[in-house]
Design a protein that fits this description.
By secondary structure, the protein is α+β, with helices and mostly antiparallel strands. The chain has 10 helices and 12 strands. α1 packs antiparallel against α3 and α7 packs antiparallel against α10.
């Protein structure tokens, strides 16, 4: 960035210098031309006032041709006198532009370029009182000749100005970039205000993104640590039971019990791995490619409830679904997963002979799914955190019932992917009600 800004400064400066030099040279040359014309006009009027050129005089004066050429032309265009050539051998000048203009308006001027000699000849013609015309002319360097003579001085001046611009460009670039670099180094210091007001929204966005990245990194770090811890517990148990059986320290009548405990820990391990993989997929956005369709939410909820009735009976819990046909647009698979997770939690953390009710309907034009149980409930101080990964209200009971601590975190992701909202109402000892509004 710094190099690009520096080069742009230098490029603009060099372009400005070149254009300025060209414009100044053009102005100088125009002023120079006008000055030569004015000088010739002054000389012509001075000679006219001296009454040197008269029809009866044929002039006996001699003018230095190396400085100024003087030509006297009669009314018929015949050259009467010329200080640099033999007037008797010269052609008629009646058609010369400056002479034609002098005969018509009293004075005339013209410039004729000589490309071979790199010179310009300036002519000024003045009509005298007797009708003849006095013309003075002078050879001067043309624009190319002047440019050639001035090239060394112009080149030297341009080189000096370019070097100066390079130095100034580097200085200005550093002064512009320095506040941005300072802000980048101290991105976490919110007391530092951007030097440019245009950078305020940018700085706010960068700081927010930086905070989000740090938060996501910490969350992933915590998640990795929690996963390692959660996986270690069942693996340790499996290893311990297997070692006891391997060393013959388990009686024949206890083999079935130890085998059941190993199976339970394996099932818990598989659940942890499955939920961790699923959560990782949702985090990485893989679920966004899922096909979205319009379907009956009530029909899907009834199917999920039917599939869970055996699981509920095992926990001595009754589960039922009530509602009306309600269409939603989303991923049938993910919303089915959401219902399963909510119902599983409602069954797992319920009381003996408890109830789980799944309700589907619409309110104010929005479809909703509500899962209500008569379980142990969630204390108020824990309600805001139950959707965090591996967060458990009752850790001992959660592990006994096979919970992974990731179910509600998966639910939260699915809700977000469907632009839905989720609310929780719970009272300790009386039950929990979770509502998802689409």
């Amino acid at each position: 960035m710094k190099r690009k800004i520096n080069l742009q400064f230098i490029g603009i400066s060099v372009l400005a210098i070149v254009i300025t030099m060209l414009v100044m040279f053009r102005i100088f040359y125009d002023v120079y031309r006008e000055q030569v014309k004015e000088d010739l006009a002054t000389v012509a009027h001075t000679l006219s006032d001296a009454n040197i050129f008269q029809e009866d005089n044929q002039t006996g004066y001699a003018f230095d041709p190396s400085y100024l050429r003087v030509t006297w032309i009669g009314e018929d265009g015949k050259v009467l006198y010329d200080n640099s050539a033999d007037e008797h051998k010269m052609e008629n000048h009646a058609e010369r532009p400056e002479v034609v203009e002098a005969f018509r308006s009293g004075s005339g001027e013209s410039v004729r370029e000589s490309e071979t000699l790199n010179q310009s000849t300036y002519y000024y013609a003045l009509r005298l009182s007797d009708g003849s015309v006095l013309r003075v002319s002078k050879d001067e360097e043309n624009v190319w000749s002047i440019a050639n003579n001035m090239i060394p001085a112009i080149a030297g001046m341009m080189l000096f100005m370019i070097i100066l611009c390079i130095i100034l460009a580097r200085f200005f670039t550093r002064s512009i970039i320095a506040p941005i670099e300072e802000m980048a180094v101290n991105i976490d210091d919110y007391t530092i205000t951007p030097a440019y007001k245009e950078l305020v929204p940018f700085a706010q966005l960068i700081r927010k993104q930086h905070a989000d990245i740090l938060g996501a990194a910490k969350m992933r770090q915590d998640f990795t640590a929690n996963v390692s811890h959660e996986l270690k517990t069942p693996l340790t148990a499996i290893s311990g039971y297997a070692e006891l059986m391997e060393n013959g320290m388990v009686g024949q009548d206890e083999v079935a019990t130890f085998s059941a405990k190993i199976r339970q820990n394996v099932e818990r391990l598989l659940s942890l791995i499955t939920d961790t993989i699923r959560l990782s997929e949702l985090d990485n956005g893989a679920a966004r490619d899922t096909i979205m369709e319009t379907f009956d939410l009530n029909e899907l909820a009834e199917r999920c409830v039917d599939n869970l009735k055996m699981y509920a009976r095992k926990h001595e819990v009754t589960i039922a679904c009530i509602g009306v046909s309600t269409c939603v647009t989303g991923s049938r698979e993910m919303i089915g997963e959401l219902i399963d997770n909510l119902c599983n939690n409602a069954i797992r953390y319920n009381n003996q002979n408890g109830n789980v009710l799944v309700e589907v309907g619409a309110r104010e034009g929005h479809a909703f799914l509500r899962v209500k149980d008569t379980g142990i409930g969630i204390p108020k101080e824990h309600q805001e955190r139950v959707f965090e990964r591996f967060y458990r209200v009752d850790k001992s009971r959660s592990k006994q019932t096979g919970g992974t601590g990731l179910g509600l975190a998966i639910v939260k992701h699915i809700v977000a992917l469907h632009n839905a909202s989720i609310s929780l109402e719970s009272e300790e000892g009386k039950g929990t009600e979770i509502t998802v509004t689409f």
